């Protein structure tokens, strides 16, 4: 089926006809570029054996394309005013369900078991509200093991951090926390001009493939995630200076020396494996 929902004229008319406007409190920006919609769906590699969770379907421009290729689409739409419009726009499809719920408040596993249990894979495909992008991602990564892939549009700056590599300006605690669990790739950039209304920043689409089996193992994950936040708390400082307020400085220096790492190393120079070893060392030292 050729897409009929989501071009600029359609979005403007749909909003006008239904006396609606984008709500800032929900971070609503309606995508109008058909090529980018195609890129999002193609990059997710969806088949009819797969189910998709969409967060914030809006007027249904992405949902329509997802219904075309997926076995079933489960939509979370927090704005009850959009649901009648969305239902009307998707009237030619039967393979979807819209839940008027806040994604941050739901029990994902329960909803997957209720609506999507018959499908081979469950993926998330979404144009995320910028103001809650990180909380949504962490919820999806930490509260369920039933989701295999996330393809999401987000603020460009956040996308670059998620995909950041050591020794680059984009590499930080978020890069490590995400890449600890997923293989992250940036699919494409999205200019602010292809939204109604236009946001103040550019966007990007990111694909996160969640590891089937853990790629990394750390003795204490809670300690590890707290540690990397401390390591990047003040980017201009060295690793030792960032950590010395909370951990014994001589122990940090000993670890670096024993592992042939320069004493004045900055956090962005270390790999995920380096942080895991440091975390295991410091957590053991605190227990001894």
Task: Provide a descriptive summary of the structure in words.
The protein has 288 residues and is α/β, with parallel strands linked by helices. Helix content is 39%, strand content 17%. The chain contains twelve helices and nine strands. The chain has helices at 8-17, 34-44, 61-69, 83-89, 108-115, 133-142, 156-162, 173-179, 221-231, 239-243, 249-258, 272-287, and strands at residues 30-31, 50-55, 72-76, 96-99, 121-127, 149-155, 182-190, 195-196, 203-210. The strands form two sheets. A seven-stranded mixed sheet has the order 4-3-2-5-6-9-7. Strands 1-8 form a two-stranded antiparallel sheet. Strand 2 (50-55), helix 3 (61-69) and strand 3 (72-76) form a beta-alpha-beta unit. It is elongated and about 65 Å long. The mean pLDDT is 91.
Radius of gyration: 21 Å
Count of extended strands: 9
Main sheet characteristics = 7 strands, mixed
Q: State the share of residues found in helices, binned by percent.
A: 25-40%
Provide a count of the helices: 12
Per-chain topology:
Elements: H1 8-17, E1 30-31, H2 34-44, E2 50-55, H3 61-69, E3 72-76, H4 83-89, E4 96-99, H5 108-115, E5 121-127, H6 133-142, E6 149-155, H7 156-162, H8 173-179, E7 182-190, E8 195-196, E9 203-210, H9 221-231, H10 239-243, H11 249-258, H12 272-287
Parallel strand pairs: 2-3, 2-5, 3-4, 5-6
Antiparallel strand pairs: 1-8, 6-9, 7-9
């Amino acid at each position: 089926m050729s897409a009929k929902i989501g071009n600029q004229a359609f979005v403007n008319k749909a909003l006008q006809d239904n006396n609606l406007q984008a709500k800032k409190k929900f971070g609503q920006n309606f995508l109008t570029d058909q090529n980018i919609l195609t890129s999002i769906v193609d990059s997710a590699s969806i088949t009819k054996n797969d189910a998709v969770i969409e967060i914030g379907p809006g007027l249904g421009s992405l949902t329509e394309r997802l219904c075309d290729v997926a076995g079933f689409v489960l939509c979370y739409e927090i704005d009850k005013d959009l649901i009648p419009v969305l239902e009307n726009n998707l009237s030619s499809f039967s393979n979807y369900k819209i839940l008027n719920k806040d994604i941050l408040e739901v029990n994902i596993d329960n909803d997957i078991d209720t609506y999507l249990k018959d499908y081979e894979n469950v993926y998330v495909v979404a144009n995320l509200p910028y103001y809650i992008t990180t909380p949504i991602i962490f919820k999806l990564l930490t509260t369920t093991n039933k989701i295999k892939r996330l393809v999401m549009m987000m603020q460009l700056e956040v996308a670059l951090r998620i995909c950041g590599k050591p020794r680059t300006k984009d590499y930080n605690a978020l890069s490590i926390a995400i890449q600890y669990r997923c293989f992250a790739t940036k699919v494409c950039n999205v200019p602010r001009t292809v939204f109604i209304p236009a946001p103040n920043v550019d966007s990007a689409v990111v694909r996160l493939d969640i590891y089937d089996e853990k790629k990394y193992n750390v003795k204490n994950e809670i300690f590890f995630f707290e540690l990397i936040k401390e390591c990047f708390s003040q980017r201009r400082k060295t690793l030792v200076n960032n950590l010395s307020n909370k951990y014994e400085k001589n122990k940090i220096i000993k670890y670096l020396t024993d592992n042939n790492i320069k004493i004045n190393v900055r956090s962005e120079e270390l790999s995920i494996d380096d942080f895991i070893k440091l975390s295991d060392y410091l957590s053991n030292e605190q227990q001894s």
